[in-house]
Structures are given as structure tokens and as C-alpha cells.
Amino acid sequence: MNIPRQHPIIAALIALLATLTSCYTATESTPRIKVEDKKLLEPTIEQLVIDNNFTHAGCHTWLDGKAFISIEDKLSPMLRPEGHLLSDDKDMKGKTFYYRGYRQENIYGNKAVVYLIYECDGNLYSYYTGKSIEEIEQMDYLPLIPTLIDVDAVAMARSLFVGKQLYILTSHWYNMQGEVIAGRHHIPVVVKAVEPGNNVLPLAIIFSDDRNNEAQVFITTKSSTYTQMLSFDKLFSYENPRNAYPDMTDEVWNAITESQLLKGMTKQECRLSIGIPAEVKKVATYNGLKEQWLYNSGAYLFFSDGILEEFRQ
Predict the structure, then answer these.
(1) DSSP codes joined into one string, 70-138
(2) Residue 283 is assigned to a structural domain of this protein
(3) CB-based burial of residue 253 (10 Å sphere; 0-12 exposed, 13-18 middle, 19+ buried)?
């Protein structure tokens, strides 16, 4: 064996991805930015925190003993037991898998492919990459084993966020049983803990709000610069988003944090409150042309001269 060189959530997730546009991103009220102009934009502080602290180097850089936590009771079908098992491959949740290097096998006289080796409770398991070591090095390849969460990533997130006050930008929260609950957004929260996440998003950020409500959200360890997944910089801010709207009344802002609407709101305020509509229509009425916003939830809004005149939420 060679040792390498140094170096019910899924459904809720789909709903969260669909409603992500309701999160404040500091760009919702600005004109559409051309692709070429985006390259000129500086990364946000939140993006830099993720990019500078979470490495995504390929598995050829892993050291012997790199640890991963299992988040499922059953062994991942992507891991094949090696030899006789010393213990059952069930009740795996919370157990630690240690990386133990790799071996290469020549399949049917073709290229030598790499098998990554893991150890848990004295048992060895292999992961078939289907790639040569040269391909792995060139690609900075990382294995996709959704049931295993990188212990180093969890530890890094704890050091960065636990005890810190942040501003949460989504009202789509989860309770501690992983069930979707309605929360508030654009409000201060204090991070209480960071735990392994789920088999799509590896980190669970656990927090409490100013009403002593405790909840969690799940994030990826990459910033939105590299992925469209739910990233830290889309769900949290270090700066108070209220500061961007000094002319907004407290009544309107409080309604926005509760995802509520008030007659007389502007389009910008409505977007901040309940997100971007699925469809926008122009509707002719006796009083002139009005704009109608339609949402997948069944909500609709009518605007006259850019001001919310009627709605059903």
C-alpha cells in the first residue's frame, strides 16, 4: 500500500434552493450585471473567509490518518469492505473513518486505477476512483462519499464561527431534528455550535436569535464564487443588512424580517421580504396598467406606480 504525498433533508433542501432568492444578497435591488462585469467585482468578506480557510486540494495531498465522520447509520455503498470484518457495518453514524493511503490496480490490462483506503474500527474499506494517480493529481480529484464529512472542515468552521454574532439572510430554518421551520431573516444571531451536516451540505450551523429560538441551517464549504450550492456568503453576513436602507421605516423593516408584506411597500422592500417572484405580468385595469407578481407558493402582489397596492400572501 502506498502512502500519498503530504500536503427528511433532501426534499427540504430542494425547497430551500427554490426559495434561496428570498435571501438578501446585497444585489437584489441593483440592475442585472453582465457576465464580463462580474469578473471585475471584488469578493465579499464572507466569500474570502470561506475561500481562505477551507482547502479543496485533491486526495493525493491527504496525509495518512485524515479523519472523516459518518453521518449515516449504514455503510456507504461506495465503500467496499476489505477482507473479514471485525465489527458490524451497521450503526455507523458518528463513527470516524481514517484515510490509510491508496493502492493501484491494473484493470484488464488498461491503466492502473486508484483505490482509496479507509479504516474504521479496525476494518478496511476501499473506494474505487476509476482514475489513475496522474489523473487524480491533474484534476485535484476529491472522492464523492456523501456519508462522510471531513473532520478538518468541521473544526475549521467551529474556530471561525462559534460564539460570533452574524446576520442570517434566510428565513428557511431547520429545527434540531432536521425539519424545516419558518424563521426570520436579516436579523442578528449568535452561532452556538457547528456540527457535521447532511449528505448534500457538509456543515450544520447551529444558532440562537434574539428571542432565544434555536435553529440550524446547512451550508457547503465552498463560496458562491465556485458553486451555486447554499454557501456561507449567501446565508450569512458579518454586516447588518439594515444599514443599507437608512431611509426605510422600522415598521417596514420589521415586517421584512418576518417575511410579511404591508400595503405601500416598494418593489425592493417586497423582494427583501418574500423574494423574487416566479413570474411578472402587466395587467390592464380601469385605473391603468398594473404590475402583478406571482409566486410558486400561490402568493400574488399588485403594484401601481411601483407601490404595493394589493396582495395575497
Answers:
(1) E-SSSPPTTSEEESS-SS-SS--TT-EEEEEEEEEEE-TTSPEEEEEEEEETTEEEEEE--S-HHHHHH
(2) yes
(3) middle
pTM: 0.81
In a domain, 33, yes or no: no
Distance CA(228)–CA(243), nearest Å, equals 26
| % of the chain with per-residue pLDDT over 70 | 86
Write out the three cell numbers for 34: 453582465
Question: Rounded to an integer, what is the distance from CA 124 to the centroid of its chain?
Answer: 31
pLDDT tens digits along 213-235? 999 999 999 888 777 789 999 99
- Residue 281 in any domain: the answer is yes
What is the edge-to-edge ordering of all strands in the sheet holding 165-168? Answer: 180-182, 172-174, 214-219, 203-209, 187-196, 165-168, 236-237
Residue 268 lies in a domain: yes
Q: For position 291, which CATH number holds?
A: 3.30.1450.10
CA distance 41 to 241: 19
In whole angstroms, how large is the CA radius of gyration of the chain? 24
SS3 of 231, please?
strand
On whether the CB atoms of residues 206 and 218 are closer than 8 A, the answer is: no
Residue 16's alpha-carbon distances to 1, 12, 81, 97, 225, in angstroms, are: 43, 6, 36, 30, 19
Q: Are 245 and 298 in contact (CB under 8 A)?
A: no
* Tally of structural domains, the chain: 1
Q: What's the CA angle centered on 167, arms 162 and 169, to 5 degrees?
A: 120
233: part of which helix (H) or strand (E)? helix 232-235
Q: Are strands 187-196 and 165-168 parallel, antiparallel or unpaired?
A: antiparallel
State which residues form the domain around 295: 261-312
